[in-house]
Amino acid sequence: MKQQQYNTALYMRLSRDDELEGESASISTQKQILRDYANEQGFLVVDEYVDDGFSGTNFERPSFKRMIEDIEDGKINCVVTKDLSRLGRNYILTGQYTELYFPSKGVRYIAIHDGVDTIREDNDIAPFKNIVKNKRCLGGGTTKGGFMNFQMDKLQVLLHTAFTRPDRQSGKTL
Known about the structure:
There is one protein chain. By secondary structure, the protein is an alpha/beta fold. The chain has a single domain (7-164), classed as Rossmann fold, CATH 3.40.50. The protein contains six helices and five strands. Strands 2-1-3-4-5 form a five-stranded mixed β-sheet, with helices on both faces. The longest helix has 18 residues, at 147-164.
């Protein structure tokens, strides 16, 4: 059986708010992670799309728009990001891309650190991860100890527990 060739877009984004997360969110770190992953998977990297200094709360970003044009032109059939928040921080719009747009165009989407890969069928938790990762956009802010952060942290623990415990009937992890 012949393995499908993936013409891959490596997408990186960093906003001023993301810089507060430190080196782990930097463009250079994202590039290295994405390049290593693409190489390990044998993906053909068509281009690297970098939106440095752009908020993830909207999709009016020059490199993101260019990537979408390349998808429309049939140049790209796989998009890889470090995590869901690099694609976007607006969980509704991000979900529209990952759940509707990419599949409608035959584009595989991978968020490495979140374990999301749309070629697999076990991505049920991806929408919840998207919400939790993007709590800033839900009013959580970036400060520790806020009420919204506390509520989102509780939700994250509940979701992790719910989706990693064995199912009572089948014994399989959800």
